[in-house]
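So, who can interpret the following?
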Amino acid sequence: MSSCTVPLGQGAVLRHIGWEIGFSRCTMTPSRDVSRLIEIMAQLRTPVTGCPWDLEQNFQTIAPYTIEEAYEVADAIARSDFDDLKDELGDLLLQVVYHARMAEEEKAFDFGDVVETICRKMIRRHPHVFADKDGNITPRGVKSAWERIKAEEKAERAARRSGDVAPSSSLLSSVKAGQPALTRAMALQRKAGSVGFDWNDPRAVLQKIREEADEIEAALDQGDKAELAAETGDLMFALVNLARHVDADPEMALRGANAKFERRFAYIERALAAKGRTLEAASLEEMDALWNEAKATEPSINSVIPGRE
């Protein structure tokens, strides 16, 4: 069996392995030139001799990794960890190369087209730097020109997608589509709420959450996976609405819940290890009891927030 190691994503390195049948050992060497990364991806996506996993992927299956890598970049920035940032930016760049390669295979565009498009966009958005007659423009003028040009580009894209149909004038069309789902849900709700399409009481939102939970239960009885996914999305949208009405940031609230889960699970691991036991050997009832112990040892929210008693 022959192999080569190539960074793929998830903050790790995926080993691409090829069976010896007609395969040659990978001879790629690292380089500072982005063309080498493009060559690596081309080899991984080459039928027969490429990586079976990479060959199975498509835009839809790779998209979650792309989102994940963007979050990893943001996390490294938040931690001011430049070593990690270098790695994560590389992982994110690989996602761009991956999508460009798949598009090239479909004869839609290639990596060079991606670079040319963003170059053209940046030149167009900075006429005071690259093409302005006198180069004199105030900071306020820069922002105004940037927003105007972005609006023009958005209208042009919409026209390309819909032929001769005019761009949407919906109130919600100004909400950016590329935002994380939780953030965009909040933005959509706020925008609709600005014209009165909203609840006035968080308890009304809570009632909507109960309704959505009932619909999930009905979907469970039917065993319809597509319906379950749709109803789960409705429930999550309603939960974001509740967070908005109680002035809680849903992203930060979920991050807090993640940290709490990790903390309590770590308590279970430590408690079992102290008894010479493993997670695999423990029963659900035993782990649940330890979970409750962990919960009982944590300070209340009132004691950890200044000014709360």
